[in-house]
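Suppose you are handed only two things: the residues of a chain and a line of SMILES describing pyridoxal-5'-phosphate. What would the bound structure be? This form records exactly that question and the answer produced for it, so the two can be stored side by side and reused later without any lookup.

QUESTION INPUTS
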Amino acid sequence: MTPSDASTGYTDADASSGLFHLNTLPAVQEVLAAVEDTCLAPEWPRLAGSRIEQMASNDLLFSGGSAPRDVWAVSGLGATVDASVVATGEPLSLIDLCSMTANTILGINDPWVKLKQAAYLLSDRPHYLTARIGADLPYRVARRILHCFDEFGGPGEFVVNLRQCNGSDAVELALHAAWNAAAPTPGRDKLATFRGSYHGENLTANWVSEHQPGGLLADGPDNVVFFPTPRTDDTGRLTAATEATLEALDQAGADYFAVIIEPVQWRNSVHVIPFEFLHRLRDICTRHAICLIFDEMQNAFGYTGTITFAQTSGICPDIAAISKAITSGHGPLAVMVARRAYREISGPFGAKSNSGNMLPLVAADAVLDRLLGMSPAEHQALPGWVPPGLTEELRTGVLTSAYPRSVALLDGLLGELRQRFGSLVGEPRGLGLIRGLVLCEADGGPSVRLAAAAAKVCLRYGVYVRQADTAVLVKPSLFLSESEIGAALDALSRTFQEVLRIRDE
Ligand SMILES: Cc1ncc(COP(=O)(O)O)c(C=O)c1O
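ANSWER OUTPUT
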């Protein structure tokens, strides 16, 4: 980097963007200089043997589902990951259109989240707290999250649990809270869920999801009722099956303690639940005192332009289960936001071991700064060496600026791919930054096989997408530049050309 300003050390180009590598800041370079050539340098620990040799030990080291594959990442910023192909050593600039699966809403290496975590780590603040001991940060994060529900209830209407580690935990806790609240009414013991759903990998989440292998220890309980995926027909009206679901729930409302639903069923080829259905479901749940649970693992914290789906849709659940993007990949954290009526939790639920780690809470606080902006007083207190681009983004939050820009870029990308590959690619699906492209066989039928093929070959061409049943999932971080979209278009076009060859050979 060529410093254009002796006091800050960043160039005009760096300064205009809120995305930059922390090690370009002089204040950080001083700390890094102190560890250079020691075992604390970030390049350590060094491994004996080449990357090919490391990969050859996959079978010895890792269980299924966790073995690293043939692409090796060394660095990255925003939606671009600097990687290499292990077999050839060839460098690979990878456009990450899946926010690394862990849902890095801010992309890789967000400077603000890392800076806040680094500052916290360098202090003598506690890094871990048991649920019995208090500190400032949980109160601050709780208030900030609850503030996002202000428009849906008076003061004290909602409470939050901050002590879950992952999405499956938050789903289980939400179901427990709803079950607990229904305990005084013994007949109210059914749970409604939907075909096409995925709620996580623990046993409870397994029982209430369609997309699960299931069958661990016991078959699912007989009080979980699977309804058809809510849909509209070609004219935009709710289908007969969807109307029948609403009718059935209305008729038997007193039997149900909860309904759990994902607003966007990503594993179901990225299907958006019709808002009209959610509105009417909300009404039924209110009239029959059924707990309405939104599983917001995939959408919350930015992917549909808001922190919660209640803000996106105007429909507020009784419990929102939230995880993933809340830390943008900087540590595990899941939360449950619940109406006060669902506040009671029986032990041992509600406080997972390892959930008291402060770094994910620091990350959640920083992600909120990033998405919504800081308070004016805090913003005033930013150090002078924070580059102007980041300073400006922290003033307003990027949900009002970067989000609409990225959604427009994504619309353009998906539209262009549809133009180029009309016989392969169906109408784009999804909402906001959670999108999907259904891949079709030559006869026009949606194809799991081709979506799987695309997800398999994409890395080789420099783009990362996942399979979502018959669709490829496209769910980028909200920092997406025009040049990254251009590179993604190129890489996806080459991917789809190969998929076409597979289809038509
Ligand atoms: C909608 C939904 N719910 C729950 C989960 C489970 O989250 P976790 O993998 O963090 O347990 C996932 C994970 O992908 C998800 O997509």
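WHAT STANDS OUT: Residues 482-504 form the longest helix (23 residues). The chain has a mean pLDDT of 93.
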